[in-house]
Structure formats: C-alpha cells, structure tokens
Amino acid sequence: MREALRFRWSMNGNLSVSQMDDEIGDSADRAPLEGDTEQMAEVLKHARDGVQSYRVLAEASPQAYTPNLAMSLNNLAAFLSEVGERNEALEAARKAVELYRGLADASPQAYTPNLAASLNNLASFLSEVGEQDEALEAAREAVELYRGLAEASPQAYTPDLAASLNNLANRFSAVGERNEALEAAREAVRLRRALAEASPQAYTPDLAASLNNLANILSEVGKVNDALVAAREAVELYRGLAEASPQAYTPNLAGSLNNLANLLSEVGDRNEALVAAREAVRLRRALAEASPQAYTPNLAMSLNNLAAFLSEVGERNEALEAARKAVELYRGLAEASPQAYTPNLAASLNNLASFLSEVGEQDEALEAAREAVELYRGLAEASPQAYTPNLAASLNNLANRFSAVGERNEALEAAREAVRLRRALAEASPQAYTPDLAASLNNLANILSGVGERNEALEAAREAVRLRRALAEASPQAYTPNLAGSLNNLAIRLSEVGERAEALVAAREAVGLYRGLAEESPAAYTPNLAMSMSNLSNCLSAVGDWEAALEVAREARQLVDDLPQAAVLGVDSDSAAHDLSLNAE
After folding, report:
1. Could you give the C-alpha distances from 365 to 301, 352, 355, 359, 553, in angstroms and in order?
2. What is the per-residue DSSP string for 298-339?
3. Are 300 and 348 spatial neighbours (Cβ–Cβ below 8 Å)?
4. How far is residue 543's CA from residue 521's CA, in Å, rounded to a whole number?
5. Burial class (CB in 10 A: 0-12, 13-18, 19+), 248
6. How many CB atoms lie within 10 A of CB 182?
7. What angle in degrees, to the nearest 10, is found between the helix axes of 86-106 and 108-128?
8. In the Cβ-directed half-sphere of 93, how many Cα atoms lie within 13 Å?
9. Strand partners for 6
C-alpha cells in the first residue's frame, strides 16, 4: 500500500489542490491520460508550446501574462511526470512556484491560493525524485497557507486545506514521521467528514479518499484494526458512489478494494483479502477492456496484488499465472513508454521471481530477479535518490534467489550491497530507512550463515535486533512484529556459534512478543507464534531441558493443527521476505 497521487488537469485551468485526487490507494496506481503514446506525445507538445507562448507574452507584458505562464508550467509539470520525465517535471514545478511566489508577494489575496496549490504540486514532484525532506518542507508551507486562507474564508478553502493535509500526511510518512503523518491524516478525515455531512454529493468522494489515506497510515503505525475500519468505510462509500455513477467511481472502488485486501491480509483474514482482490481485478479488467490505455496499468497492479493474496492461501500456481500476466502487461507498457513504466516492470519482475521460487522454478526466478536488479540499477544511476531504495530491495530479492540455486557467494555479494546501500540511506534519513536496513541485515545474517561465516552472521543479527528494538521502543505497534522476527533469527545465529544460553534468552523473548501479538490479533500472528515456539523448543533441547522442550513443541504443534492451511502457508518468517508490492519491501 503505497502512494498513488493522481492529477487531474486541463489545458484551460491551473492544476490546483482542489483538482487533485490525493488518495494513496495502492502501489503505483496512477491512471495515465487516456490515449496512445502518439496522442500523449502530441498533448505534451501542446503543453510545451503553451509554456513557450506564455513565456514570450510574459516577457513582453509581465503583469498580464505571468499568471498564465505559471499555470502553463504547472500543467506541463503534470504531463511530464505522467510520461516519466520527472526531473524536467520538477524543473517546471519549481519555476511555477517561483512565479506564483512573486505574484503572491505583490498581491497576496489574489495569488496566495495559487502559490499554495503550486507548492503541493512541487511537493509531489520532489517526492517522485526522492527529495523527501524538501518535499515535506513544500507540503508544510502549502498547509500553512491554506490554513490561513481557511480561517479567513472557511467555505472557500477548507476543502483545499483538507486535500493539502492529505498530501502532508504522505510527505511525513515518506520521511518516517509516522505519528505526524497520522495527525495530518486524521485532521483531513475530520474536515472532509464535516464537509460531506453538509454536502454529501460534493464531498463524499473526498472523504472516501482521505479514509484510504488514513487507513494506510494507521497501518504504518501498527494500528491495523483501526486501519481496517477506515478501509471498510472507504469501500462502502465508493461502492455507493459507483452504484450511482459507475463510470466516474468504479476506478476508485477498485483501488479502495485493493487497499482493503492488503489490510485484511495484515490482520490474517486472508480468504476475505482474496475476495476483495479478486473483485478489484474483475473491475479493473472490465475498465481496461473498455479503455486499455487508461486502465491497463491499474489492472497490472491489481494482478500483482492478487498474486500475493493467492500465494498466501496456497494457490501458488494461480498466483504465478497472475504475476506472469502483470509482467506481460507492464512489459508492453514499458516498451511503449519506458520512463513511465520501467519502474513498475522492475517491481513486477521482483514479484514474479518470488512466485516462481515458491513453485520451485528457481532458475527462472533467478532470471527474473536479475532483470529486476538490472532495471533498477539503470534507474538508480539516472536518479539515485528516487530509485536507490528500490535497487536495495531488489538486491535483497536477488540474494535470496542466488541462495535458492546454491550460488552462495553471489548471494552474499548481493546481500552485502543491499546492506551498504541501505546503511547509507539510513545515515542520511534514519527514520525513513532504518527499518529497511534492519531487514537487510537479517537477510545478510542468513546468507553469511549459509557460507559458514557464522561469527559475522551473528554480528549482523545482533545489529538487526538492536535497530529493531529501538524502533519498537519508539513505536511498539508498528515494529514489535519485526523485533520478534529478528530475535528468532538471533537465537538461531547464537545457537550456531554455541552460545546456547543466550540463544534461549532471545528465543524466549521472541515467543513472549509473538504471544502478546497473537492475543491481540490471533489470525495474523498465531502462525508466527507457532514458528517461534518451535525455535524455542530447539533451544531448550540444546541446553538439555528436554521436558520443557517437549511441552513447548506440543503447544506449537497444537497451534499449527488448529490453524487453517492457508495461515500455515502464509507465515512470514522475515528471513525469506520478498517484495510483494510495487515498491520497495
């Protein structure tokens, strides 16, 4: 569940927050303008020509035409982003802000709203190229401006303030400021709920979008049950809207169903998640048949999601079929528009590699993972801030695929590179990337163990636990599951070097954490508890406590016997985590 910020614009109007669909529905879920590549090229040419025409006019008559130039630059930025020209889009958006800032300085009442809207746009384009801190700064300023406008004129600007708060929430989330993100998302929902109560037809769609945003951010801070409530309400609202106006709101309903499926999976309701994901695919397949250019990207994304949920319930062959289709669709899109869709193709190849591995097709899985890394490496060379995180995640996947075919030295090389990249990212932006560094360290520990480097493996496992302990202390709901997983890995690494007493301590703590999680959310965490108890039993045996080991093993066995088979198949051990989303793990 990642950001999907869609822009709606026209050649005749300024791109403004009120024209934004600021829903972060699902990963890489951006509907391009309808039309083929030639038509998009023509649209882009018209946008460039418009900027050039207004530039000439503004040079001759600044007061009359500078506002039009700024507006045309905002439009151009949106079109450039749509075709993957993100750096040029950012340049145009920066110039638009610069022009509107000058206009607002001279005439605040007339142009402050335009400046605020342009800052929101700039924040989005900055985020697309990985400039998350500057994006946050721009989004903060936009909210500050809209808050002032809304205080002076609530009816006119409260809707814009709410949309801007949604964007701010996304920017906070991108830099790891999840509590601040949650605060902004809650305020956006509160404002839009009041607007929708006063004017349902006008603002119910906005409320549904904000509820989706809120659901995603609640999930990020570990409040998964609250997130599920928000996601269910979003689906309910969009379903009502789609029944009344199918063409307008069926795409939103499909996106919201994807979000709901993700959250249902997080709480362990995997069969219900699959139902929601199947409906999303069915809706998007119909949309793509009617309008291929507009909705094929969304169908491909939903197929990726469906593959993940099918895998979770053990339907691995059907999952592989869905993943293959997603790659096929993205490959066609990337051939027609490389800059726009190569990132999606790379992510989809990562997913395909994981599903191929699950059905034993290890050589083909390795081939897909290699291609994903190759694509992300090219993207990261051209735009390091935007794609280095994805390259690191893809290297983790490649390391796992190398391990699966016995290429352990190559696996170790890929895992080391992933850690190196993520360490640099975490040093520059600790809140955003420390969780990823911890995950890569877990992976590295496992691979080091596989090549007999057990002391170095233990060192990596200890660091992963240390990082995740700090994260869990700051945000228990979000990171306690990860800490428990790392403690399990640490117990194994300690056992391998003969530190059996310390291994037992780590294994006991892991079981204690998973037991607490399973009490709150049985469907989601009972499989992990059973796995952790099995590990504890081994540690007890290693120190000669046979009676306790047998007792723990029996309880673990009983937990497994009581679980649905899908839940057993879906257990995530964190040691073989793969990238099941269109963005980095």
Report:
1. 20, 7, 8, 10, 34
2. HHHHHHHHHHHHHHHTT-HHHHHHHHHHHHHHHHHHHHH-HH
3. yes
4. 32
5. exposed
6. 20
7. 160
8. 29
9. 21
User: Which pairs from 235-243 meet CB under 8 Å and 24+ separation?
Assistant: 235/260, 235/276, 237/204, 237/205, 237/207, 237/208, 237/211, 238/205, 238/208, 240/204, 241/204, 241/205, 241/208
Task: Give the whole-angstrom CA distance, residue 112 versus residue 100.
Answer: 8
CA dihedral 67, 80, 298, 313 (to 10 degrees): -110
What's the pTM value of the predicted model, to 2 decimals?
Answer: 0.86
Please report where in the chains the tokens 């700039």 appear, as a residue: 122
Measured at the CA of 511, the angle between CA 578 and CA 581, to 5 degrees, comes to: 15
Backbone phi, psi, residue 144, to 5°: -60, -45
Query: If you count them, how many residues does the chain have?
Result: 585
**Residue for token digits 């990020």?**
220
- On whether the CB atoms of residues 34 and 294 are closer than 8 A, the answer is yes
| Chain CA centroid to CA 457, Å | 29
In 365-395, which positions are buried (b, 16+ CB within 10 angstroms) versus exposed (e)? bbbbbbbbbebbbebbeebebbbbbbbbbbb
DSSP class per residue in 325-394? HHHHHHHHHHHH-HHHHHHHHHHHHHHHHHHHHHTT-HHHHHHHHHHHHHHHHHHHHH-HHHHHHHHHHH
**Sequential pLDDT tens for the chain (585 residues):** 322 222 222 222 232 322 333 433 333 333 444 445 677 788 899 999 999 999 999 999 999 999 999 999 999 999 999 888 999 999 999 999 999 999 999 999 999 999 999 999 999 999 999 999 999 999 999 999 999 999 999 999 999 999 999 999 999 999 999 999 999 999 999 999 999 999 999 999 999 999 999 999 999 999 999 999 999 999 999 999 999 999 999 999 999 999 999 999 999 999 999 999 999 999 999 999 999 989 999 999 999 999 999 999 999 999 999 999 999 999 999 999 999 999 999 999 999 999 999 999 999 999 999 999 999 999 999 999 999 999 999 999 999 999 999 999 999 999 999 999 999 999 999 999 999 999 999 999 999 999 999 999 999 999 999 999 999 999 999 999 999 999 999 999 999 999 999 999 999 999 999 999 999 999 899 999 999 999 999 999 999 999 999 999 999 999 988 877 555 554 444 433 333 233 323
Q: How do beta strands 20-21 and 6-7 pair? A: antiparallel
* Spatial distance between the Cα atoms of 287 and 304, rounded to a whole number of angstroms: 17
Which of 418, 402, 420, 419 has its CA nearest to residue 410? Answer: 402
